[in-house]
Amino acid sequence: MADIDNSSPLRKKPLGVRPWLLFNSSGQSHILEAGKHAIMRRTGITGRDLRILDPDLSYPCTISGRERAIIFSVENIKAVIMAHEVLLLNSKDPAVAPFAEVLCEKILHHHDSIDPEEVGAEFGGENLDDRKRLPLEFVVLEACLDEACTWLDNEAKKPYTYSLLIFRG
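Structure tokens predicted for Magnesium transporter MRS2-3-like:
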């Protein structure tokens, strides 16, 4: 039986620690390495909601609204959407990376469209020109739904294209 060397200089991450791509409301992003308890404290979601996002488990497509967050798990997009930030799981996955770039652009566009006078007037109870801006959660939710629908549309076209190749061939 081989001896196990526990003095390895490379330490393993604690179980449950995953890399999340964190977007703030201004469009800046960085990788956040956090365990399930840290994510639960940060977002206010339960362990059950967090399991829905686990890519290693098989859960049906889910969009759930909670008090402080929206849990979005449809196909390859797994995200926790909050009022001022978004956590995206599996951002290095080749199927998710292009979406992360699109999401960043949408958040930047949303942030750049904010007029400081409009925000001040909005919180003061009067809106200068009756324009309504969507909250960040809705902008991100729209981007997630758009990406999921595009992905599902492409998946639905695959059998049709394959069957055309067989019948023509």
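Residues 18-168 form a domain with the Lipocalin fold (CATH 2.40.128.330).
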